[in-house]
Structures are given as C-alpha cells and as structure tokens.
Amino acid sequence: MKFGVNFFPTVGPEDKHPADHFAESLDLAEQVDRLGFDHIKTVQHYFFRYGGYSPDPVTFLAAAAARTRRADLVTGAVIPAFTHPVKLAGQLAMLDNISRGRLRVGFGRAFLPDEFDAFGVALDDSRALFDERVEAIRRLWSEEDLVWEGRFDRFGPVTLLPRPYQRPHPPILVTSAISPESAQAAGRNGYGLMLVPSILPRERLQETIAGYREAWTAAGHPEGAETIHLSYGSYVAENSSEAYEKGKAYSERTNATLVEAVSAWSTARSEAYRGYEKIVERVAKSDFDRSLKENKSLVGSPDEIVDRLREIRTWFGDVTLSLQVISGAPPYEESLRTVTLFAEKIIPALST
C-alpha cells in the first residue's frame, strides 16, 4: 500500500483566515514530502466551507512543488466542466514542467448544483461534457496542430505550449462516486481511479474495484499496473481516547460542511445524477461510530490504525490511500502529529 495526504479544507473565514490556511498547508506539505509520503493531493470546490478554500488546485500544487522534491502532486480532482480545455491543459502542462514530472492529473465531474449554476453549466450535460473535455485535454497534450470539433468546444489547429514534461502526457485518474460504469470506463481507458469509501457499502466498493480491474485487464493494459486511490478521514494520537474524541469532533464538523454544500439537492434534479435527491438525507444521518466500526475512517492510536489498514488491505488489495488530515479544521500541530505517526509507526508496522 502507498500513502499520501489529501488537503481537503473544510473551513471558512469564521474558522481561519485563508492566508493562514495556505501557510499552514504548505508547511505541512513540506513535512509530508520530508516524511516520504507518496503524494500531495488537493481538491477543487467553490463557495462553501466544504472545500471552499480550494477553487484552483493548480495554484496550490505549484506552490507545493516549489517546496517539495519527491512526492507526486495530484489534482483530486480538477473539474473540466468549469474551465475551457485549452486553458486547463495549458495550466496542467505548466505544473508538470514546474514539478519536473511529478504531476498526476485527477479529473472529476463535480456534483454540487450551486457550482454548476455559477458557471452556467447544466447538470444534465455533466457526463458528456466531462468525457469530451478529458479527451480534448489528453489530445492537446499528445498531439500537434489539433483541430477539435466537439459538442461543447471547437478550436484549432493549435499546438499547446509548453508541452507536458511527461510524454505523451501525465498519468490520468478519474473520480467515481457511486457509478460502477464510470469505474469500468476508467479501466478500459487506462486511467487511474479515485474513490471515497465513506459513501459506499464495503461490498459495493469491492465490486466497483473488481469491475475496474477486470476492465483494465480486458483492455490489454499491463496487469497490476492500475492505480486506485481511496480517501479516508484520518486522525491519529498515541492515546486512543483522545484520538476518538477529537477525531469524532472533526469528522462531525466536516460532515456539517457537507450538509450545507449539498442542500441544493433538496430541490435540484438531473438524469445525470440519479438518486442524488436522497443525498441530503443520507448525509444528515451520517454516524461517526458506524463509520469507524466499518473501517471508513482512520481514527485511533497507531496500533488501532495498523489493524484497520490490514483489514482494508484484505478487502481491496494494495491500493493507494489519501489521508484527509486537515478536514474538520484541526490545529496544525495535530495534523502534523497524524502524518508523523503514520510515517514513523504505522506504515513501517504494515510491512512486518
């Protein structure tokens, strides 16, 4: 298994000034790199405390690139629906060169109606728009004098400059929330997969991963070379009781920001997001203790986390875990303690 850190903010001005948030997050990114983690990841969201300090992952990761040397830099994820493909392809190609090939590009459809409304994008167009723009970006990276005649965008002939550092392009990952079909499409295309275990029953997540791996192999991609990222809320302390009490408080604070962000689904409807009208009720009923019991949160002492990870590995194999250690807005010192305990006590114990 590999481990990285997902910088998923759940803060607003009443919690922390954005300048302080970015200073602390970049300091933490530097420590994550020093401790030998696999990757540094961040999200793209607008308007709400749920990810609302992260409207542009490329800006944050460019700053992180200047302060790190080894860790991969992962967009988890950028949203093609909200940016013209020529612009987004250029931004990401710049970041790939700035980091000298450490970029891994995760693309996502987005799911918050308020974000779609702000950009004037129809929810019903999200799947077609996602597929078209990811392909346009991939070809902008890979080809010269590209002429693109799509449903949503038309341009060319153009040759993108700079060309990506990695040729023909950086590795691509895609997010999948509750759709096995999306995961299977990623496997066929040779893309990595990003999933959130907290929103799916374990058995369904296993089926989704199995379908992705089967599609990957059936398409002729190298067996065992697939990439699967799973994101987990994480909080570690030497004392189990402290970890539980504080981890629960930060988890519930994070969930409260999600309740606010998804509230528009109480009235919004879209064939592209079937079942999402139930998301408000499901999020409101979220239960930390049940999540912990089902190994959907990595909260506890180092020994407890090792036991949880060993069970997770029997379920999903050697996947890559993205640890959400700043969600819920814990103090910087506590987030640093979590990643330090992971690096010094938890990860080494998994190899014994």
Order of helices and strands: EHEHEHEHHEEEHEHEHHHEHEH
The CATH architecture comes to: Alpha-Beta Barrel
Report strand order across the widest sheet: 1-2-3-4-7-8-9-11
Mean pLDDT across residues: 96
Number of helices: 12
As a percent range, the share of helical residues equals: 40-55%
Query: How many angstroms separate the termini?
Result: 13 Å
Q: What Rg, in angstroms, do the CA atoms define?
A: 19 Å
Strand content: 15-25%
Number of structural units classed as domains: 1
Structural features, described:
The chain has 352 residues and is of the alpha/beta class. The protein contains twelve helices and eleven strands. It has an eight-stranded parallel barrel with strand order 1-2-3-4-7-8-9-11, surrounded by seven helices. The protein has a single domain, classed as Alpha-Beta Barrel (TIM Barrel). A hairpin with a 4-residue loop joins strand 5 and strand 6. Pfam families: Bac_luciferase. Residues 1-315 form the Luciferase-like domain. This is LLM class flavin-dependent oxidoreductase. It comes from Actinomadura gamaensis.
Short description:
The chain has about 350 residues and is of the alpha/beta class. The protein is built from 12 helices and 11 strands.
What distinguishing features does this structure have?
alpha/beta, globular, 352 residues, TIM Barrel, single chain, eight-stranded parallel β-barrel
